[in-house]
Design brief:
alpha+beta; 30% helix; 2 domains; three-stranded antiparallel beta sheet; 11 strands
């Protein structure tokens, strides 16, 4: 792998690692499934009927058709995928939301203890699914104009800022988004929003070495959570945070085949 790849996006993109999904996926404690959904390649009308009234109202509030269509596909794909795990009709699923808006299956759909989390940016959504573990995921489009020193100093810890400054200039944008996605995935996995101040925990910035390095409020968190970087597409950065360490990652590419 040459350095030119890192200068533009986190890693040379290998689409072969994102496999076709099984028709009847099964969640288990030893695996974390991450689904990639291309929001622009799927037709929104196919999913609109799966949405509930609240989701349709939310979709209608988007000013631009592109954003409205992406929201519709994202919610429809979420319902379709989880419906396959639970072997229920996607339109019948109901969701609840924690104090800090972390989504979960509503009462009546939780007997299988499926844990999931989703994130979308630009034309992609990622959905992480597992069994009996808390999980959080984040994907971001790599926007060099956003990856500024001012933003880092506002949202990163002192240790993270020093690590970012120590990197060669051509790697700093990727380092910035490595930090951003790992922090966001960890916060989402905890489901406690910004009750944990962003400068009170540290994550790694280096490629291929995603980790929670320190939590100064709850030191035991370091031995509770594992992080993994993801490469969903060129010019995108992503990470998943998972409770525990004894698990394997399975990457799946959502396709219309699962709608059959």
């Amino acid at each position: 792998m040459d350095g030119s790849c890192h200068a533009v996006w986190p890693r040379c993109f290998d689409p072969s690692v994102w496999l076709s999904p099984p028709t009847h996926p099964r969640a288990n404690h030893d695996e974390v499934h991450v689904w990639r959904v291309s929001l622009d390649q799927l037709q929104a009308p196919k999913f609109l009927a799966l949405l509930d009234d609240d989701e349709r109202e939310r979709a209608a509030r988007f000013r631009f058709p592109e954003h409205r269509n992406r929201f519709t596909v994202a919610r429809g794909a979420l319902r379709t995928i989880l419906g396959r795990y639970l072997e229920v009709e996607p339109a019948t699923l109901q969701f609840s939301y924690g104090r800090y808006a972390k989504p979960a299956l509503a009462e009546g759909f939780t007997t299988n203890t499926i844990n999931f989390n989703l994130s979308h940016s630009g034309e992609f959504m990622l959905l992480a699914v597992t069994h009996g573990r808390e999980v959080g995921i984040d994907i971001e489009f790599i926007n060099q104009e956003f990856a500024t020193t001012e933003v880092a100093e506002r949202f990163f810890s002192r240790r993270e800022i020093l690590s970012l400054r120590s990197q060669a200039r051509q790697f700093q944008t990727v380092g910035f988004f490595n930090c951003w996605t790992r922090k966001e995935a960890y916060i989402k996995a905890r489901g406690e929003g910004l009750s944990l101040p962003l400068d009170q925990f540290d994550v790694s910035l280096e490629p291929s070495r995603a980790a929670l390095l320190d939590n100064r409020i709850s030191p035991g968190e370091v031995s509770r959570w594992s992080l993994q970087e993801l490469h969903p597409a060129p010019a995108y950065c992503a990470a998943v945070a998972v409770e525990g360490f004894s698990w394997s990652l399975r990457l799946m590419d959502f396709s219309s085949r699962i709608l059959v």
